[in-house]
Amino acid sequence: RPETMLGDTGVAVSPDDPRYASLVGKTIMLPIMNREIPIVADPHVDPAFGTGAVKVTPAHDPNDFEIAHRHGLESISVIGADGRMTEEAGEYAGLTCEECRRAVVAEFESGGLLERTEKYTHAVGHCQRCGTVVEPLVSLQWFVRMEPLAAPAIEAVKNGSVRFVPERFTKTYLAWMENVRDWCISRQLWWGHR
Known about the structure:
Blueprint: E1 10-13, E2 27-30, E3 35-41, E4 53-56, H1 62-71, H2 97-110, E5 143-144, H3 147-158, H4 169-178, E6 183-184
Parallel strand pairs: 1-3
Antiparallel strand pairs: 1-4, 2-3, 5-6
Helix pairs in contact: 3-4
């Protein structure tokens, strides 16, 4: 997604990948935006996938958001709620994502920065009503902290106060509760919406 590269705030590599060990902690210059961004080591990166180095775009990818949180990277929103590029996208502000994608690729080509293009199939979220692409955006939300609520529920199972029948569901329950995430209660849905 070349258009999201405008909001990159880091490059992540696996801490177990010897190819990049000497680069961790250094910075690189983000093309087009001319912004210096750090190279960080993060366990989320699979060294066997692609180049083993991934761009980190916290404002537009949930996994990148988590990586950025662990490493203190900023989040730059280059796509707005209207699906157009924001002022943070510099000269590309106001373009649709598709227009920006083509313009960024053309900029890479003209600058000799594009090694190759290839078809890649990946899952893209679409609105079930109108079919438009759903762009991940960071927004202010309210969450319920789940860990304090999960702890007594876990303890009740471990001390035998609560039992599962059949027993095999105990393991599933504990795995779920021990890895529970905070619950977003401020979704943008209204009463009766389906």
